[in-house]
Please model this.
Amino acid sequence: MKKYNFYAGPAILPREVIEAAAAAVLDFEGMGLSLIEISHRSKQFVAVMDEAVALVKELLNIGDEHEVLFLSGGASSQFYLTPMNLLDQDEKAAYVDTGTWASKAIKDAKLFGNIEVLASSKDKNYSYIPKTDNIDTSYKYLHITSNNTIFGTQYQTFPDVAVPIVCDMSSDIFSRPIDIHKFDLIYAGAQKNMGPAGTTLVIVRKSALSKVSRVLPAMIDMKNHIEAESMYNTPPVFPIYVSMLTLRWIKNNGGVAGMQVRNETKAQLLFDEIERNPMFYSPTVAEDRSRMNVCFLLHNTALENEFIAKAIGAGCVGLEGHRSVGGFRASIYNAMSAEGVQALVDIMKEFERTHG
Ligand SMILES: *Cc1c(COP(=O)(O)O)cnc(C)c1O
Model:
């Protein structure tokens, strides 16, 4: 049976990407060797890294002001790497608390500077995005989480502020066009919308670096990674290769503007059903709903296990909600087809017919 993968992360990748990745593990470009047993400094792998970086720049319209890095350590490492590289101990940065990942970023950043939490949606279990336009310009940067993977909220537009933005885009990178000029730094773990777990994309404005007085170990210092073109140490070759394949797929499918159209259509399909179907409801405020992670609940929570079982029976897997929200979460990243979302909608309709 065809499976529709709604897991939040690691998450769905285009089938053709997985097939090409499998082939490269067996024999990479006719070398008679596997992708995962060749030197990262071989001309074949250097070409992969170069293409991955070039595709990121092309897709997000990035010019010479920013550098693109593929690092390791996950998005969680950026929670401390970002302030260590951008913020001196006596400087202040503004953070917005929109959920679990944002809170973790705040906790780590506090070790390296004066962190002020300008706004939080914790009062309503992170069901909305608090407004933070026109903030004081004395902050070094404003840190936000563009898409809150767990709570299903997303910035529809980025805050209108006169300070640079630092953004955790782990779960919506490449899902829509962005204006790169607003950002001093963007980071994203690969495993939501770009590739397998194991690499983290970092896009950093060059002029924002070299301004802190603290001494940074080599692996922490982003300048070092820029100079070494993401090969200061052995890079995670397989996740970078698969990310590159996904970036090619995005380019061949209309780029990030094409992804945006696709994603809006899918999210609309699912939200229309959540609104229409009297058995279900959405825990998030309408204007801040995520187009990547759609949270929804049953009014009758006693039926949750049965709904999950019905979904699995129809090939829809990974729909269990995160424990901090409950109910269900359909992660409908770039690679999820409208057909997959329709399959879920059909189950919801059928559930209403048999239980409503
Ligand atoms: C998954 C996720 C993270 C954590 O990523 P790791 O790569 O596991 O460290 C951070 N931020 C957001 C928004 C996420 O969705």
